[in-house]
């Protein structure tokens, strides 16, 4: 039976269906482990090594599947696998098969809902660790989670916090902004001002002023690498916090894009 599953896996890989091949190998692994007499076979160690190597690619493929009841269980499994890969990557004493973390994690986060990102990454805790630049944990974290991925975590917290009216999530987004400005020397004063505005600790004019500064200091002909800071044209129209909230925050997550971006109804 294990050999039959290996044959199924081979067919899956030949058809570029990584997840099907991965799942077949996982079934073969279970079959071999279920019998003590087969537990020391070379085939089992080969399968386990292949599963480790294929885990990142399989995870991305499953996360990219259509959101449907039929795929729900496989998606939960993929998120669990992503969580384990992150645990391995952030653990300074554990090896991980992910070769290009910024690329891998960026692709993974782009396939997650805001709720899933918030549940996956304790962004405020990670950002606090990052502030201590000299610590081994902070240095290792920079390899795994780059600024663009952290920025996506900020947006997820703001999107979910706004759509669900959970100020604690907005407050976490503010904490991440503060820590990243201290550790990366990157200007996130607009995002911080927007969070303060939602928390009732700042006013709309302050947030608009910061957004205007971003637009005036940006080159309209170039596209920012940071989502939400793209200047789409050179017009001098007054920046709108609600437009930024709608287009650059809520719209990028499938579970928040239908939320009405009215700041009037926030409180």
UniProtKB/TrEMBL annotation:
- Which one GO biological process term can you cite for this protein? chloroplast fission
Domain (Plastid division protein CDP1-like 2nd alpha solenoid): residue spans on this chain: 146-259
User: Where is the Plastid division protein CDP1-like 1st alpha solenoid domain positioned along the sequence?
Assistant: 1-102
Instruction: Name a single GO cellular component.
Output: chloroplast inner membrane
The record's section on InterPro entries has: CDP1-like_a_solenoid_1, CDP1-like_a_solenoid_2, CPD1-like
- PANTHER family from the UniProt entry: PLASTID DIVISION PROTEIN CDP1, CHLOROPLASTIC, PLASTID DIVISION PROTEIN CDP1, CHLOROPLASTIC-RELATED
* Name recorded for this polypeptide: Uncharacterized protein
Organism listed in the record: Salix viminalis (Common osier)
